[in-house]
Amino acid sequence: MEKFSKVKETINAIQADVEKFYNGGNAAAGTRVRKAMQDLKGLAQEIRAEVTEKKNAGK
Question: How far is CA 33 from the centre of its chain?
């Protein structure tokens, strides 16, 4: 559950950069968004692994 909270925090933290990139064309903001998306990808993979482990432990 802690990692899911981290996902939500990350998304909230990059919201301003997403707006700067898409609405203002700020390339540096786009770089920050791409980095955050890579971090989210890693977090999502960790959450998937935990869910699978917990699901299979019940069998």
Answer: 10
Residue indicated by tokens 């909230």: 12
CA 58 to chain centre: 28
- pLDDT tens digits for range 32-59: 999 999 999 999 999 999 999 999 997 6
**pTM to 2 decimal places:** 0.82
What span, in angstroms and rounded, lies between the C-alpha atoms of 36 and 34?
A: 5
How far lies 32's CA from each of 1, 4, 57, in Å? 25, 20, 38
Q: Which of 14, 19, 22 is nearest to 39 (CA)?
A: 14
Report the Cα–Cα distance between both ends of the chain, in Å, rounded: 21
| Structure tokens that stand for 8 in this block | 């939500």
